[in-house]
Specification:
Elements lengths: L1 H22 L3 E7 L2 E5 L3 E3 L1 E6 L11 E4 L5 E3 L4 E4 L3 E9 L6 E10 L35 H26 L19 H30 L2 H16 L3 H12 L7 H37 L69 E2 L2 E2 L7 H9 L2 E3 L5 E6 L4 E2 L5 E7 L5 E8 L5 E6 L5 E5 L8 E7 L5 E7 L7 E8 L1
Parallel strand pairs: 2-9, 12-15
Antiparallel strand pairs: 1-4, 3-7, 5-8, 6-7, 8-9, 10-11, 13-21, 14-15, 15-20, 16-19, 16-21, 17-18, 17-20
Helix pairs in contact: 2-3, 2-6, 3-4, 3-5, 4-6, 5-6
Length: 501
């Protein structure tokens, strides 16, 4: 009995010690469960975070801040509930603590597609009477023929899916095109059948978008709350998507060239107008379609029984001659152009002696060398020194493989993402393969000339989210390799850049 009493006394004394430790818990680690999860588009996954002190004891009453690395793939609310938006992977982070004691934990969540988007409505509505069924690319939106709010939500889901499909189809039509009218096209016979086929396909998609705009207007006026608001955003985006009207004009030019005189001028004007505007307008409309599917899934998750994700379109590869400064809203343009203003072979960010007279020999900092003595440069302004230090320019040679890191303070792209710049030069004409590989981010690679003109770009050429460019380098040209991530959200992480023959 004495032993039992002593044991009870000790046990009773241990509990207050544990409670006391909890009261002054010093946060050391956060773990998320599940650490590696999967969710379907339109479905939710509940994530739970637990905070531990240095002894491994859970901390009570900890408030977490949740975030997703890509809200276009996965949305996470304040409770850790994650909503699948489009296929892909995202990193979820839970943070807690204050000041120097802030700690975070991470989990990887994969969002997977499903076979169909939304459960079919009881009835199959007829196609909108405003567009002939023969003039469709397969993405036309039927007129509404349902009953009640549940059918309205299904109809909104079908609209979001068909809009996304039409946008993706349009991207594929113009992928790897020149981005400019056919050179020397004085008549329809001077344009290839493949090019004419692109404009016809685009015209059919344009007709489908007309029916989608009508469906979106109906939802805007008929559906209450978030569905109607999201549909209204799609109405505005489709109304601004005017570039496809040029596809209708261009197709008419091939069918009835006599009505379009002077033919070459009309063809050039319409084609240039389309290439100038279409991708920026498509990106805006695509964002609106994704917001609609996000809204439907949040308002009525039970109806989102299957999902085909609204994937972000990949930017088409355009030739250097026709490449605009930015491909679409949030698209990829090079960082601020890195130039060699005085032509001394040292790029401006590294040149401490700007305006060097042509023909003078300079050192690595761009300052003249006279009799083996470097002319002392004037001191740089403090701001320029800081900018140069934050935006380092690296060098890679043919045959080398170099490691790097994307991080805050790197060059900033037009869409706000970070980038590293690597100089590359060959002594003679050389065929090279440039590869960018990373496990931390979806690689995106560009090759620029010395003036900052984009020569070629690639997203997934090496497979698995890695990039590959094949190019013939000219001798004594200083090329710029731009290392970046795909998408318009800045990410950090390590990568490997290689240049091989």
């Amino acid at each position: 009995m004495r032993r039992l009493a002593v044991f009870l006394i000790l046990a009773q004394g241990a509990a207050p010690a544990l409670v006391h430790a909890q009261a002054r818990c010093r946060l050391a680690e956060i773990q998320i469960s599940p650490p590696d999860g999967t969710v379907s588009v339109g479905a939710r996954l509940s994530l739970a975070a637990t905070a531990y002190d240095s002894a491994g004891i859970p901390c009570d009453d900890v408030r977490f801040t949740w975030a997703s690395s890509d809200a276009n793939i996965l949305d996470v609310d304040a409770t850790g509930s994650a909503l699948g938006i489009s296929a892909g992977s995202a990193i979820v982070t839970a943070r807690a603590g204050t000041g120097a004691r802030v700690r975070s934990g991470q989990a990887v969540v994969r969002v997977v597609p499903r076979t169909t988007v939304f459960a079919p409505a009881p009835a199959s509505p007829p196609v909108s009477a405003s567009v002939d069924t023969a003039t469709t690319a397969g993405f036309s939106m039927p007129a509404y023929n349902g009953r009640g709010s549940e059918d309205l939500v299904r109809y909104a889901g079908r609209l979001a899916q068909r809009s996304d499909s039409a946008f993706m189809a349009l991207v594929e039509v113009f992928r790897n095109t020149s981005g400019a009218p056919t050179v020397g096209a004085t008549s329809p016979m001077m344009v290839s059948s493949r090019e004419r086929g692109r404009w016809r396909r685009c015209r059919l998609i344009h007709f489908d978008l007309v029916t989608q705009a009508e469906a979106a207007e109906f939802l805007r006026d008929s559906a209450a709350g978030p569905i109607g608001q999201a549909a209204g955003q799609l109405v505005a985006a489709l109304a601004a998507f005017a570039a496809t009207e040029e596809c209708d004009n261009l197709s008419s030019m091939f069918e009835a060239p006599d009505r379009w005189t002077p033919w070459q001028q009309n063809y050039d004007n319409s084609a240039r107008a389309f290439y100038r505007d279409w991708y920026a307008q498509l990106r805006s409309a695509h964002q609106a379609a994704r917001e609609l599917i996000r809204t439907v899934a949040s308002v009525a998750p039970a109806l989102a029984v299957d999902g085909s994700p609204p994937l972000p379109p990949r930017p088409p590869t355009l030739s250097a001659a026709s490449q605009p400064p930015v491909i679409g809203a949030g698209g990829k343009s090079a960082p601020p152009v890195v130039r060699d203003s005085d032509g001394d072979g040292v790029m401006d960010p590294l040149d401490r002696c700007r305006g060097t007279q042509a023909g003078l020999r300079v050192d690595a900092s761009g300052c003249p060398v006279a009799g083996g003595v470097v002319t002392a440069p004037a001191p740089l302004p403090v701001a320029s020194q800081q900018a140069g230090a934050a935006q380092e320019i690296l060098v890679i040679q043919v045959g080398e493989s170099r490691d790097g890191v994307l991080e805050p303070g790197d060059w900033t792209m037009a869409d706000g993402t970070w980038a590293d710049i690597w100089y590359l030069r060959a002594a003679s004409t050389t065929d090279v393969t440039i590869e960018l590989r990373s496990r931390a981010f979806d690689a995106y690679l560009q090759l620029l000339d010395a003036a900052g003109t984009r020569l070629v770009e690639d997203d997934d050429g090496a497979g698995g989210g890695n990039s590959r460019i094949r190019f013939t380098l000219k001798p004594r040209v200083r090329y710029q390799i731009v290392v970046n991530n795909f998408g318009d959200q800045p990410v950090t992480g390590r990568y490997t850049l290689s240049v091989t023959r």
